[in-house]
Structures are given as structure tokens and as C-alpha cells.
Amino acid sequence: MNKYFKKGSKILLYIVLVLVLITLVITAVLWIKSPGKADPILDSNGQDLSGSISSIEKIMLGGVEQYLIVRGADSTKPVILFLHGGPGSPEYSFMKATNPNLENDFVMVYWEQRGAGKSFSKQILSESMNLSQFISDTKELSLILAKRFNQKKIFLMGHSWGSLLGILTAYQYPELYYAYFGIGQVCDQYRGERVSFEWVKEQAKIRNDEKAIKKLSSMTFPDSLATSDKWINFIMYERNYVSRFGGGVTHKMTSMWPVIKMILDAKEYTLSEKLNYMPASMFSLEHLWPEVMNKNLTKEIDSMQIPVYIFQGKFDYQTPYIVAKDFFDQLKAPEKEFFTFENSAHSPIMEEKEKFNSIIIGKSKNILEFKAE
Question: Does the pLDDT value for residue 75 go beyond 70?
């Protein structure tokens, strides 16, 4: 008995030591890959590209320290302020991995919004986590960027949650922007969530996925006044099926591992910032989601004073195509266009980047040439 006990103890000790070693190796690798510094933009000879900009900057917005990742091959090019999704999910790491080419034609400003990513802090007051404050932050940052880069105006681009923030800011302060670009446009998310839920239930039946059918049948769709906790609990399960059936972040990405890997690979974040990414996202989601669910832009915005361009994936069931199209159809603007991406879900900026970039470059060029006349 004692003999077997000793042998078992040695095996257990060996397993523990191996696990500790693996953990240390993984931690060391992540530490090395997480210096928290901006990668330079290089020329064809591998040298820093003259006139380029690549920086991580701390800035005060609305009395709170927030961070920008600024990148452009030519710092005199037009500025695009990119508003990430979530709420609370910065997308620089995704853009770096999938579509850095916009940086050749624009100064891309990836803003890590209050309470998210590099801008997360336990000192942020929960009462400041509201749409009104975020719109104020966006306005303040837009003015700073126009002055800093000697631009009369800038372009505003929002993805998912950022599209709600973006179009509301552009609606209130059109004088600051040449145009608004909305990707995966949020406009009536309560309706969108219902469309999404009905779609995943239909897909489960089409695929004869008994496990999914059983789980989805047991779920109760929250009412419009449901708490953040109820919505988050619902969404965490429902989005798994949205992704599995091809309607999530991308049409082809059916799990979250590729997203996690992009975050872990981004050198611009420190290890602690990477580990805080999800807690920050949940913090933002908790405080901002009720406002997202209770906004119906079809009832609030029937016209815009600047050009509006909407980019929507055909397979998008996070911010469903049909809801965005209905909002667009009733909207009046000096110029507006709705671009359908046949092979994309929620992120055509990453899924069909050549088509996306070509449209952005063409539209911005036309606008700037018209303004110069």
C-alpha cells in the first residue's frame, strides 16, 4: 500500500511540475509578445518610413485618461477616427491582423474608448458609462484630431456598437465630419436581437442539430426592460450559435479562438492589458447595453447633414442585415449608399477588405475633391 502511495505521489508531483513548467513557458512567451509598444511602419528596405506615424498615446477626454493607437504611412493624409465595437471591445488587434492597408491612405486613429482595452481602469465611475458621455468624448477627440493633423474635418467610422456611437455623434455634430461610415450598423438592436434569435432557431432545425434545438428552445427572449445581467446571460449563449452557424464576427469564423489569438499576438498591448481585455469588455457591456437595447434610430434619426455610407454583411446576424437596410431606406442624407457584402457576416472590413478599402478610398477621394472645388 505504502509502495503504491509513494509511486502515485511521484507521478502526481511529476504532473504538477510539468504543468507548472508549461504555464511558465506560456507566460514567458506572452510576456515577450506583449511589450506594449507600437510597431513602426517600415519602407521596402525595412527602415522607418519617412513621414509615417505609429504611436500609442494617452489623452484626457471628459476628465478620464484614454488611449489612442495612431498609425499612418503618411501623417498628412486624411484622418479616420475608428470607433470600435462591443461595447468595450477594441479592434486594433483585429485590424492589424486582417486589414492594415487602410493605413496607406489614411491616418487611422484607433481609439480605446473609456472603460475598454488600454483605457480600462477600476477608477472609472460607472455613472460616466453612458451614451451621452461617450458622444461627448467622441466630439472632444474629433476636435483634437482635426487641429493636431491640420485638417478642416475628419472622417468618422464606426463598427457595431461604434456605429451607434458614430451615427449619433455625426447627427449631433455634423460640422466635424466629412462623412460617416457605418459597419454592421446598429439602429434598432432590440428588433435585431429578435431577428437573430429566430434565425439561429431556424438554422438549428435546418441542420437537424438536436442539442442546439433543445438549448435554444429552453431560452427565454428578454423583454426590452430586462437588466444587463439577463441580456448578457442570454447573449453569451445565443451568440455561440450565431457564430457556429456563420452569422457572427465573421462568416467563416465559427469560434472565438481566432479573435483571442489576435489579441494575444498584438505587441501594442502589455500582458496585463491583454488579461484585462475581457473584464473591461464585460464592464462596458454591463453599463452600456441597456441604452443600446432601448435605442431605435428609425424613430430618432430620419435625416443626416453629411454623406452616410453603410457596409453590411449579408450573413450578419449580430446586427442583422434587414434591420440596417430598413433604417437606411428611410434615412435622408446629402448622399447615401448601402453596400452589401455577399461573403461577410458582421465584419466586412475584415472579411472582404479589398472591396471595403476600395469603396472607402473612392468615396473619401470624391468628397475631398468636391470640397476643394
Answer: yes
